[in-house]
TrEMBL record:
This is Acyl-CoA thioesterase. It holds the Pfam family 4HBT_2. SUPFAM superfamilies: Thioesterase/thiol ester dehydrase-isomerase (SSF54637).
Amino acid sequence: MSRPAPIPASSLPAAAFRAPFRIRFGDCDPAGILFFPNWFAMANAAVEDLFRLRLGIDFHQMHAARGIGTGFVHAAGTFMRPGTMGDEVLMTPLLRRVGNASYALDMHIHRGEEELARLDLVTATTQLATRTSTPVPPDLRAALLRYQDECGNAAGQEIPA
């Protein structure tokens, strides 16, 4: 497995959605460094913000009223530099692929130009009532593909280093 090289924030597509976060006291271990599982909780929050603010889809309504779940079925991270208490970071999700019942994205996490971490996330769509896989709903599929196209990050395209 090759470790991805950090890339500066300015190398990401200008059209990409960016979710700001501040690393808080409660996010950190006793050394004041962000406890690594919290990156994944923050990534999920960034995905919720992406849905609402960029895709125009109410994440909570999709789960509660429509009964469609979107949960991580794969989550891996490459941690390049520590995030510390008080840091202001930007989380930038970029889609790698939209499949039949899942989508994959890279979550780039930057403090200024410095990439702190990159998360490899795969999200599956499920019927919450039966806990079974279901196709990505057409409105979500269209919104994800539109976002991917707007970012100029079509499936298989590499982000320049």
